[in-house]
Specification:
By secondary structure, this protein is α+β, with helices and mostly antiparallel strands. It is built from 38 helices and 28 strands. Helices cover 49% and strands 15% of the residues.
């Protein structure tokens, strides 16, 4: 006991302000995080109060002295929640701008600016193309980085939402005086605090004295049921101990005096807040895919750059010229349009999901939901309606299921008439003028049920309350005495645990009469109790007693402290089974999720029997033998044992779990390689929501903390919306593959002309500015509009993707070995035709570049013997580049049509994507603007083309379309032994 208490003291030292251990900031934060992940280990709720006072140096009457309190406050710091090490917004912005694929774009921008500087110092008239391209790449990076920054900046404010839950002042005893305005931040361990109804608990307290004291622990447990707290013996698990009231819990009834045993970061709330603030979310599957693509493309660009460098130096090019060549080839390999396309596609999907009651805060989480393999779902409010209802009634040895029973059947049942009076009177729930009921969830459910067949307001007016014994955890019953205004006599009503009420009953209402409570009737009632308990219901028993008017006349002084009235020999009326009913649509939603290969587990703080019953009802469990693990069992498990348990048992329900245990479950699933989605609505769910691959909060019942922490918010609190999210996530992944394939295909005809320009010394077929126009202009709308493609028919029949990368080898083969080469051939065909029509036949162009680009040479002869000046040559070069550009645009239009599907025929799918149709038209219009509008064509180094040159690429577009339809036909029918499937199905 002493070792555990001293251990707590050393932990407190670690959370002192001013870096108490002299550790580096990062090491200190890591040490604190490891401590917070562990369950609370303390004996302060178990030792006798006298020993606790001695340990804390306090007195239950006079409290701490002001000097001692000041000393402790200076040493341990204030009773507030300390945020984890926060980076300033500038550092956060810099981090957002330099992560993922943006690093590659920054590299491209730097190389472009470097190339421009080299040309500026080595040429009298340097080209500004690289300068423009560098500036555009920087702009692209900044815009996309701002999206990431805004998301990260919002998530850095998690601790502020926790601090909003803390009260400002409290009633504290010091030096024997009570100060009702003591700042909560000034409380220290050992302070004596007074709590009354409506107060928020200002720290973790050990209860000294109380009366009718109930607290709402939903901020910590997620279960919105008022629980009693009193000076009783504690349990080993402090979270379930009835003699402790926790920081941020709300006192809903009664009053209590307590001694502060924990403050600030080491309270139960502080531990949750510390975990939520310090945990780092795992990278999303899409983020990992983008990083992998970045590495591959970087390696490819660097490898190609080294090849060009060695080839250029071998061909005799000067070093500075070789440097420019290498920079050009590296920049040409960067698909500048990829990052804005991915961002725009995810943004469009997020906007679409808002119409389906799903608010996406983190764009990448939408795609991650499609890759989800495991869902750890909360019970209350997610799978259930979060509204307690009466489900069963047991009256006169008959069980009635309320949903299937007409209340008219009970009209002549005397026990039911007495039950209505008892249920309306023995309750502290209030009824507002508008008819709404406020109070404990169970009492609200009973009153709402009574409203269906009677008016409890009328009953309460007829029977005003005279005296009451509030419910407490020791007696496990509630008693109230009322005066019958019509008959001028008193009636006593009791509600409580069935076994307690039954023991105090001498008779039982049976067959419209009263039967003696004997062993046989006891057995009947116990069987009814067991049957209800097996369905996960919370069971309450009701009893009444008409008091003798001679012994207890009107005006009699009833004493609830020194009880002067009978609470034995009552008449047992019946049982009520209460349950938070599952949502109607949840079962079918879980069936769809499981059909999609996604595992669903329930993680709740509720009772194991209730959790099992709800799991069976909604389909998470298909047999009563479903494996149920309680928090106590989980506490005794090693991480390896939990891992093996998850491997062995597919259907698992976790009950009575703490916030740290929910986090432990998530991390164990991730250790298995699962992509984990976690649903939650309470403060206690924040660490698991933060750590999960996809954190999903509830929009209606969710706390501000859970909403702040989550990636996705369900605006209708409906589990079925998650199914829609999974379908949309899988669809967006498929469509992103199509968009990336579309973008990468145009990368091939952009790279090879640069290679030919360097290796074969031909005039440059495609300029830097036209490459920029393709990547960030003509290609953008069609690429983004592919996000609007409908989902494939089998999208929810597939297992979750595990080894299906965003950019696969099959896609690379299709892009670089098939379709990209056809586009390149179309562009070079247009280039050579335009050159030939002006006298430069293909064989003469090889090796001409040095004279072609020399301003001093004015007599370059073509194949017909005509001499061309530098200005004339450059004008022809612009025309050739414009023809090459238009050829790519025409083939990319066909490519956009091809990329609509991965294996279905276009004739089967049709052209129903209006966004794509408009995008293809826009592509032609933009190409016309770039070629024909004065000023713009000068900026992009293009030229007004003759009409016939627009049709030079048509044979190649027809070839692309026919080839791809043949490829998809072979894939669908597995021709040639499935060779095309392995080679090109991406």
């Amino acid at each position: 006991m002493n070792s555990r208490t001293s251990s707590l003291s050393s932990i407190s030292d670690l959370f002192r302000p001013n870096n108490p251990k002299g550790l580096r900031s990062r090491d200190l934060s890591c040490t604190r995080l490891n401590i917070l992940k562990k369950e609370i280990q303390t004996d302060t709720h178990l030792i006798p109060l006298k020993d606790l006072y001695a340990l804390l140096g306090t007195d239950p009457v006079t409290g701490l002295s002001s000097d001692r309190a000041k000393e402790l406050l200076e040493y341990y710091g204030s009773n507030t929640l300390t945020p984890a090490t926060q980076h300033c917004w500038a550092r956060l912005l810099l981090k957002s701008l330099c992560t993922g694929f943006s690093i590659l774009i920054w590299l491209g921008a730097i190389l472009c600016l470097t190339a421009y500087l080299i040309e500026m110092f080595t040429k009298p008239h340097p080209s500004t193309d690289n300068l423009y391209l560098g500036c555009v790449l920087i702009a692209v990076d900044v815009i996309c980085g701002l999206f990431s920054f805004l998301q990260n900046y919002k998530s850095s404010k998690i601790m502020k939402t926790f601090n909003s839950m803390i009260p400002i002042t409290s009633s504290c005893v010091r030096d024997g005086l009570t100060n009702t305005e003591t700042p909560v931040s000034n409380l220290v361990k050992g302070d004596i605090v007074y709590i009354r109804a409506g107060d928020v608990i200002p720290a973790d307290l050990r209860i000294i004295d109380s009366k009718g004291f109930k607290v709402d622990n939903s901020s910590l447990t997620g279960e919105c049921v008022a629980v009693p707290r009193s000076n009783t013996d504690g349990t080993p698990n402090i979270m379930e101990s009835q003699n402790v009231a926790f920081f941020s819990a709300l006192c809903v009834e009664g009053w209590a005096t307590g001694v502060v045993i924990c403050c600030g970061d080491l309270t139960a709330l502080g531990r949750i807040a510390g975990l939520a603030a310090r945990l780092r979310p795992v990278p999303s599957p899409l983020s990992r895919e983008i990083h992998q693509l970045m590495r591959y493309m970087s390696a490819w660009a660097v490898g190609l750059g080294l090849f060009i460098a060695s080839a250029s130096l071998g061909l005799g090019y000067p070093f500075m010229q070789t440097t420019i060549f290498v920079i050009g080839i590296v920049v040409a390999n960067i698909p500048e349009g990829l990052q804005p396309t991915v961002t725009a596609s995810l943004t469009l999907t997020a906007k679409h999901m808002v119409t389906k009651n799903c608010l996406v805060k983190n764009l990448e989480a939408m795609e991650a939901l499609g890759a989800c393999t495991t869902i750890c779902s909360d019970k209350t409010g997610t799978l259930t309606e979060n509204k307690m209802r009466v489900r069963h009634l047991w009256l006169e040895n008959q069980t009635y299921e309320v949903s299937n029973t007409s209340l008219d059947q009970l009209k002549n049942n005397k026990a039911f008439q007495s039950f209505k009076i008892c249920g309306a009177l023995c309750s502290n729930a209030s009824i507002a003028p508008d008819g709404n009921v406020h109070g404990d969830a169970s009492e609200k459910a009973i009153l709402n049920f009574i409203f269906e067949c009677d008016n409890p307001i009328t009953v309460r007016k007829r029977y005003p309350k005279v005296s009451e014994i509030p419910f407490n955890s020791v007696n496990k019953y509630q008693v109230s005495i009322h005066l019958d205004m019509l008959n001028s006599k008193h009636i006593l009503v009791m509600k409580g645990a069935p076994e307690v009420v039954l023991d105090r009953s001498a008779t039982v209402a049976m067959d419209n009469t009263e039967a003696i409570n004997n062993k046989e009737i006891n057995e009947l009632i116990n069987n009814a109790i067991e049957n209800m308990a097996n369905t996960g219901e919370r069971i309450l028993a009701f009893a009444d007693l008409n008091l003798d008017v001679n012994e207890y006349p009107p005006g009699f002084e009833f004493d609830a402290e020194e009880i002067n009235f009978p609470i034995e020999n009552l008449r047992f009326l019946g049982l009520v089974g209460l349950i938070d009913p599952p949502r109607k649509e949840v079962r079918s939603a879980i069936e769809r999720v499981r059909a999609a290969g996604v595992r669903v587990m329930m993680v709740t703080g509720d009772h194991p029997a209730t959790a099992r019953a709800v799991a069976l009802e909604v389909g998470i469990a298909t047999t009563p033998q479903c494996h149920v693990i309680t928090g106590t069992e989980l506490r005794n498990m090693t991480s390896d044992l939990l891992y093996l348990t998850l491997e062995k048992n597919y259907e698992i329900v976790f009950a009575r779990t703490s916030p740290t245990q929910k986090l432990q479950i998530v991390e164990a699933c991730q250790r298995q390689g699962s992509v984990v989605a976690v649903t939650g609505d309470g403060v206690n769910d924040a660490p698991a929501l933060r750590r999960a691959d996809i954190g999903i909060s509830m929009g209606i019942t969710g706390s501000q903390v859970s909403k702040q922490t989550a990636d996705i918010i369900l605006m209708d609190d409906n589990f079925a919306t998650i199914v829609t999210g999974i379908e949309e996530g899988r669809k967006i992944f498929d469509n992103l593959k199509k968009s990336i394939c579309y973008i990468l295909i145009s990368n091939v005809p952009e790279i090879i002309p640069v290679l030919m320009f360097i290796l074969f010394s031909i005039p440059l077929p495609l300029g830097v500015m036209t490459i920029l126009c393709i990547d960030l202009g003509t290609d953008m709308w069609p690429a983004v509009s592919l996000a609007h493609e409908n989902a494939e028919r089998d999208v929810m029949a597939r297992p979750p993707r595990r080894s299906d990368p965003l950019v696969s080898c099959s896609m690379i083969r299709l892009v670089y070995g098939h379709l990209g080469l056809i586009e390149f051939a179309a562009g070079m065909f247009a280039y050579f035709i335009v050159m030939a029509e002006h006298g430069f036949y293909p064989e003469q162009l090889f090796g001409i570049r040095q004279r072609w680009d020399n301003e001093a040479v004015s007599d370059v002869q073509d194949s017909l013997g005509q001499e061309w000046t530098y200005a004339e040559r450059k004008e022809l070069e612009r025309a050739c580049q414009a023809a090459y550009f238009v050829a790519i645009v025409m083939t990319q239009i066909t490519n956009g049509i091809i990329c609509k599907t991965r294996y279905n025929s276009l004739f089967h799918v049709g052209m129903k994507n209006k966004a794509l149709n408009f995008g293809l038209v826009f592509e032609i219009i933009l190409a016309c603007v770039v070629c024909y509008v004065p000023g713009i064509n000068s900026f992009f180094r293009t030229y007004p083309l003759r009409l016939k040159w627009w049709f030079l690429a048509l044979p190649f577009t027809a070839l692309m379309f026919i080839f791809d339809e043949f490829r998809k036909y072979c894939i669908r029918n597995e021709k040639f032994g499935g060779w095309f499937n392995k080679l090109t199905l991406y």
